[in-house]
Every structure is written in structure tokens, then in C-alpha cells.
């Protein structure tokens, strides 16, 4: 049996969507710049600093989505044992996750992100320092990315590769870009997408 009335997750979807999109923008405007300032005390190369932050964002979304999948599987397995309606099992599972997002082990995701960054060949760090210095940025990104998976439809970040053709609908050019260059040299911040449509532009550097 399906309930005629939508569950909590569906009822709050629009307000949660608006909050999370705004929060993603806030992280770009505040926590990202804080992390940039912090990294500049260890690394003089601005390109490397921006690459580190971009990869932290990408890895945070990846880790949070994996954690969400595992969390959802555990919740579904537990709730299916006694589920009888009136909501569908999927709606009941989603409602439970939305109500209990504090059970998400965000520190495990942060650790996973730092592990991935330590073996990423595109970024390097002075050996005496650890990527843990930007763990507060990573934590906030993981939290937002996890919550974005509870939306209908979920939000994600666009896939970006060095050397791709610059896309006006996907990115803004950084102020230090060559504005006539057609290719992305590297990315500063990922674009946010919903159903493969960009809803918040990312930032990229174009150079010849």
C-alpha cells in the first residue's frame, strides 16, 4: 500500500534543496578561501593550492556518496524487517535518513578523502605537512554532499578534466585566466548539477 500523503523527505524537499544549494555557495565563498589562505602558508604555488582544494571537493563528494549508499543499504535492511506501510519502503527509508543525518560518520569520510588525496599524483604537499590541515573544509563538503543525496532528485558535481573545452554554462573563468584560451588548464571549483543540468557554475582557469 502507498500512502496518499508524501513523507517528511518529500514535503521538505524544496526547502532542503534551497538550503543546500545556498550552503554549497557559502562554502565556495568562505571555507574555500579560508583553506586557500591556510595552504598558502605552506605552498607558494597558487595553482597547486587551487588544485588541492578542487580535488578535496571532488573526493569529498565521492566519499559522501559512497557513505550514503552504505548507510541507505543498512537502513533499508533494518526497516524492511518490520515494514508494513502506509508509506512505501523507499519513502520510509528516506524519511529515516533525513531525520537521522547526524548518524552519518562524517569523520570516516574525511579520513577517506585525505587518504585518497595522499596518493593523488596531480597534487603534492611538503612532506612535513598533512592534508589534515584543510579537514574543516573537507568535513563541510562531506556533510553537504551527503545531505544532497537525500534530495529528489539528488544533487552532484560535474565531472571535469584538465584540457577539456571550456564550457560557459558549466564554469566561470578565474580572473587570472587567458580569456581567449579555449581549453581548461585546471579547475578551481566544481559545478553543481541536477539531472545533468548545471544549477551552480563552477570556476576554471583557461590558459594557452
TrEMBL record:
Keyword Kinase set for record: no
Any one cellular-component term (Gene Ontology): mitochondrial outer membrane
Domain Mitochondria-eating protein C-terminal intervals: 16-206
GO BP annotations, alphabetical order: mitochondrial protein catabolic process; mitophagy by internal vacuole formation
Listed InterPro entries: MIEAP, MIEAP_C
Any one Gene Ontology molecular-function term assigned to this protein's record: lipid binding
Alphabetical UniProt keywords: Coiled coil, Cytoplasm, Lipid-binding, Membrane, Mitochondrion, Mitochondrion outer membrane
Localisation: Cytoplasm; Mitochondrion matrix; Mitochondrion outer membrane
Family: Belongs to the MIEAP family.
Protein name as catalogued: Mitochondria-eating protein
Natural source organism: Struthio camelus australis
